[in-house]
Write a structure and sequence with these properties.
The chain has helices at 18-32, 70-81, 98-107, 142-147, 152-162, 183-203, and strands at 5-10, 36-41, 84-90, 114-116, 123-125, 131-137, 168-175. With 214 residues, it is an alpha/beta fold. The radius of gyration is 17 Å and the shape is globular.
Length: 214
Amino acid sequence: MPAPRILVVIGTPLPGTLNHALARSYAESARTAGAEVRIVDLAADPVPGHPSARGEVRMPRTDADGPLAPEIRSYIADVEWADHLAFFFPQWWGSSPAALKTWIDRVFVSGFAYRYRPTGRLWDKLLTGRTARIVMTMDSPAFWNAFVYRDSAVRSLRAATLEFCGVRVRGVTRLAEVRHRAEADRERWIGGMASFGATDAAAAVARPREAVTA
C-alpha cells in the first residue's frame, strides 16, 4: 500500500518561531509513522508576489495568460502531490499573515483548485479527496478570538478556501495567549503535535499515484 503524502505549510515569514517547532514535531512524527512529508516554509522558501494580472490567479488558458512562475508551478505541484495538508500559522490582526494569504492566492487558483461551471452558480471542487489540519497560534484569549474576531482566520481558511475546493478539514487547533505562556506549556504543545502527525499519517488516504502531475 503506498505511503500517504503530507504537505506541511508553515505560514509565517518569520524564522525560528513556535510554529516552526510545532510543524517540525508534526512532520517528524508523520515520517516516523510512514508518511512522505514535504514542507513549505514561508520564512525560507519564496513568498509569491501579489498577483498583478488575472492570468496569475488561474491556470493559463490562453497565450495571453503566459506561463506560471517557476515557484508557483512548484507549489501547485506540491498541493497536487499531497493527500493531506497541514497548515501552521500565527494569527496576526485577527487573520493570517500576508505571506500565507498571498501563497493561497497564487496556488489555489481557478482551474487547479476549483473551476466554475459554464452555466449557473455551481463550481467543481478539484481538490476533493484530500484532507487537512489547521493549527493556529495567537496571543488573543480564546474567548476574544471566538466572540470579537469570530474565529475569522480559521473560518476563512477552512470554509472559504479548503472546503470550497473540496478539502475536508479533519481538525483545528487554536493555541491561545502564547505571549503569556510558560515554556512548559510550549513544550507540551510541541509534544502534542507529534500525536497529530502520527494520527494524520495513519488516517490519510493515499490517492492513485498516476493522478499526480510532477
